[in-house]
From TrEMBL:
UniProt cross-references to Pfam families, sorted A to Z: Acetyltransf_1 (PF00583)
Enzyme class label: transferase
Highest taxon above the source species: Bacteria
Keyword Transferase attributed: yes
Domain N-acetyltransferase residues, every copy: 14-173
Keywords: Acyltransferase, Transferase
Protein name: GNAT family N-acetyltransferase
Organism field: Aquincola agrisoli
Length: 199
């Protein structure tokens, strides 16, 4: 557990107790409600979807296939994100970032950088040298990740369907060392926005 300021705490979750599970689901629901389903859910998760989501995440974390970051500000759920590793020997230098969310009231306050720095530190400890992610074309998330130095290496047509509308998806990449340099240089300050900042 890392205490970054008197009221800010980030921790890597190893066991999803009821409180942590509910908080993580609420954060994902925040993005579903405010950002038109860009985290894979067009609306708040049903009880069954939430149970399956947490159970799947717990399995991956327990197996060492994923690392789940959770943050609080003043004791309130504020941010979460997942770094997934690959089991393929030739690709162990790469990790995928997903389900990253910051609650609206904490946007633009450098909590995003705090979370990403923690991701970078964990990645470096694990020998991960490259981050990849995928995001809906034209979304605020795409603009945010581009601002943070991620670049598109591929585009998938019909990546997502929400409300009968088809969206393309951008697959993005950045070297961990490059992201570290941006974060340490203060070059990644997020802009204040309505809704959640997310991956």
């Amino acid at each position: 557990m890392t205490s970054l300021q008197p009221d800010v705490t980030l921790r890597w979750v190893t066991e999803f107790d009821a409180a942590t599970s509910a908080s993580v689901v609420a954060l994902v629901d925040c993005a579903a409600a405010g950002d038109r389903g860009t985290l894979g859910y067009a609306s708040s998760m049903t009880a069954g979807q939430a149970q399956d989501f947490i159970a799947g995440l717990q399995r991956r974390v327990a197996a060492g296939d994923a690392h789940a970051l959770y943050g609080q500000v003043g004791g309130m759920p504020a941010m979460s994100g997942v770094m997934a590793l690959t089991a393929m020997p030739n690709c162990r230098h790469r990790a995928e970032l997903s389900k990253g969310v910051i609650r609206p009231e904490f946007r633009g306050l450098r909590y995003l950088q705090m979370g990403l720095r923690e991701m970078v530190r964990r990645a470096e400890r694990l020998g991960v040298e490259q981050f990849v992610l995928d995001v809906r074309e034209g979304s605020r998330a795409q603009a945010l990740w581009k601002r943070l130095g991620f670049r598109t290496y591929g585009i998938l047509d019909d990546y997502a369907r929400v409300g009968g509308v088809r969206y393309n998806g951008h697959f993005m990449v950045q070297e961990v060392a490059s992201l570290r340099a941006r974060l340490m240089a203060g070059d990644a300050t997020p802009v204040r926005r309505q809704g959640c900042l997310h991956a």
